């Protein structure tokens, strides 16, 4: 009982001062637990066995006689400093709506600030040959800092005008150090025809999405008109390569009513109606 009281005092007095609870065993092996992942520490009636329960529902039970050293520190004992984030899976999937969904999982995390999502795209230019972009950062997902429990992450990308895309994760530590994941690739079929889709949602307030498909590169204008035929806003006015495009229209400064959106390319034109309902 005396040993359990002493251990309890040591744990509670240092619990919020360090990041890890480290264990060194008599067989020279090591274990650790992140302080923010510990939900409860208990001892048996005789004070000879200790159980550390974690917030994910798992637990670790050891006889105190097998533990040669127990410390609280900002790093992991026996690891030469913090261990890197252990990425155990990274997958990519293309949905029916042509969204790209990235999923990844970590087994452990140490000083994980988060993940930058980076993209490299190939597209068809006006001469129907491939043109490429440089790697670009398209998003960021915050990490869990320190964790010895599995964590799952997800990010959804809606690329436009590309036929082959590569993705990678840039895992960033809290001290600024970083490491790249493997590269995953997905191919998006170039549309076979020009098409302007119905906006969604419709009716809307105040934002809606307009999507259209280009089967070849072209100069493109996409404009909004009111019921009197007056131009209310220009959404697109540029040269675009073949692909599928999604444009968000914010009508917060317009009044309720019927509006029309019109698209013109070098060889095609289309117009559709939408309703702004505030």
Structural account:
With 278 residues, the chain is mostly beta strands. The protein has 3 domains: 2-73, SH3 type barrels (Roll); 86-187, Immunoglobulins (Immunoglobulin-like), CATH 2.60.40; 195-276, Immunoglobulin-like, CATH 2.60.40.2550. The protein has 1 helix and 21 strands. The strands form 5 sheets. Strands 7, 8, 9, 10, 11, 12, 13 and 14 form an 8-stranded antiparallel β-sheet that branches. It has a 4-stranded antiparallel β-sheet with strand order 18-17-20-21, with no helix packed on it. Strand 1 and strand 2 form a beta hairpin. It is elongated, with a radius of gyration of 28 Å.
What is the secondary structure topology, with strand pairs?
Blueprint: H1 2-14, E1 20-25, E2 30-34, E3 38-43, E4 49-54, E5 59-63, E6 67-73, E7 86-94, E8 100-124, E9 130-132, E10 136-147, E11 151-157, E12 164-173, E13 178-180, E14 184-187, E15 195-196, E16 207-214, E17 218-226, E18 231-240, E19 243-250, E20 257-264, E21 269-276
The average pLDDT value, as a whole number, equals 82
Shape: elongated
Q: State the helical fraction.
A: under 10%
Residue ranges: pLDDT <50 for 5 or more in a row? 1-11, 13-17
Assign the CATH class of the largest domain.
Mainly Beta
CATH superfamily of the largest domain: Immunoglobulins
N-end to C-end Cα span: 69 Å
CATH topology of the largest domain: Immunoglobulin-like
Question: Which key features would you list for this structure?
Answer:
eight-stranded antiparallel beta sheet, SH3 type barrels, 3 domains, Immunoglobulin-like, disordered N terminus, mainly beta, 21 strands, 278 residues
